[in-house]
Design brief:
Layout lengths: L1 H21 L11 H11 L11 E9 L2 E9 L9 E7 L6 H8 L1 H7 L3 E5 L20 H15 L2 E11 L1 H12 L6 E5 L16 E6 L10 E3 L2 E3 L2 H11 L7 E6 L2 E6 L8 E6 L27 H10 L7
Helix pairs in contact: 1-7
Length: about 325
């Protein structure tokens, strides 16, 4: 009984803190700026000549700040090099690898089915770790690596620049949100699982469409905030409240009981057409909801199959594009 009361209090706290954080905001979608109009126009045109790529998965390398970095590139069977194609950049967790996060999340199959390019970079270190705190101004930083990687893709493939997306698990989730915080690389939406992040510097960034998942029984990254092996991470409620407030979302959220152990909190019609979706899993551990084994990094606890994070992420991405959210 005490555990059930604790779970309810956490959910009520999430509703309350987001309502307080966004009560003074006004949701409105600004008219297209010249930049977004240009993005729309560019993305509607094909590539001439075609940027040919062989379908399937391949290992690629890129030199960033004098260092060689690697990534897994997965090109869908329907790619023909002349049609602008969405791109999803997927970041593994601490100690993970590109292949493991692609296999666990089944994002490769979804990318193939939706004719999108999937890119899974590799972090550095004997125990692979993303440095999501070093600024993009540092030439060897991971933010600079992602920026250069996107530029490489845009020059070598027929990419729809209005449909670039970032997603990650745990340490990779924190990196995805750090990219939203920086705002230099223009992703249309961001997805994270088991790795919340927010910093004061995020207030200077453009609106960010965010979808996030976290288990209340996560012992690696505690829901209420923790000093983890990758540093101090904020409480989930506070981090998501900050993103909703940053996006000037309406104070009231739609709250849905998805299943026995899952609640969904959503804020729509936020600034610039952005939105914030949060899924809280009562019995969930440090896992990718709906994921398969092996785990994408240092996972633990229960993997819920009451929802499928990959399918929900893909649906969220499909609803958001730069200049046309």
């Amino acid at each position: 009984m005490l555990r059930a009361i604790s779970v309810v209090r956490r959910w009520l706290a999430l509703v309350a803190i987001l309502a307080l954080s966004t009560a003074a905001t006004v949701a409105c979608g600004p008219a297209d700026t010249p930049e977004t109009k240009e993005t729309k126009s560019a993305s509607s045109r094909g590539c001439t000549p075609a940027h040919s790529l062989s379908p399937g998965s391949s290992q690629q390398t890129l030199v960033v700040g004098g260092q060689s970095r690697s990534y897994l590139l997965r090109v869908p069977p329907g790619y023909d090099g002349s049609v602008r194609t969405p791109v999803v950049v997927l970041f593994h967790g601490l100690g993970g690898a590109p292949e493991s996060v692609v296999n666990t999340t089944s994002m490769g199959e979804l990318a193939d089915d939706n004719t999108a390019i999937l890119v899974a970079p590799l972090a550095r270190g004997k125990v692979s770790e993303w440095d999501f705190r070093s600024p993009i101004s540092e030439p060897t930083s991971d933010l600079a690596f992602v920026r250069d990687l996107v530029e490489e893709l845009e020059s070598g493939a027929c990419v729809d620049s209005s449909r670039l997306y970032a997603a990650g698990f745990s340490n990779g989730s924190a990196l995805a949100f750090a990219l939203a915080c920086d705002g230099t690389t223009t992703f249309a939406a961001y997805a994270g699982v088991s790795g919340p992040y927010w910093a004061d510097s995020c207030t200077k960034s453009p609106p960010a469409s965010v979808i996030y998942f976290h288990g209340l029984q996560d012992k690696v990254v505690d829901y209420d905030g923790a000093d983890t092996v990758i540093g101090l991470l904020p409480p989930v409620n506070e981090a998501m409240a900050s993103w909703a407030a940053h996006d000037a979302c309406p104070a009231a959220s739609a709250t849905t009981t998805v299943s026995q152990h899952v609640r969904h909190f959503t804020w729509e019609a936020c600034r610039g057409g952005s939105g914030v979706d949060v899924y809280v899993v009562d019995n969930g551990g440090h896992r990718w909801p709906g994921g398969e084994r092996p785990s994408p990094g240092r996972a633990s606890g229960v993997t819920t199959h009451e929802i499928n994070a990959s399918a929900l992420i893909w649906g969220f991405f499909d609803r958001h594009a730069l200049g046309g959210q």
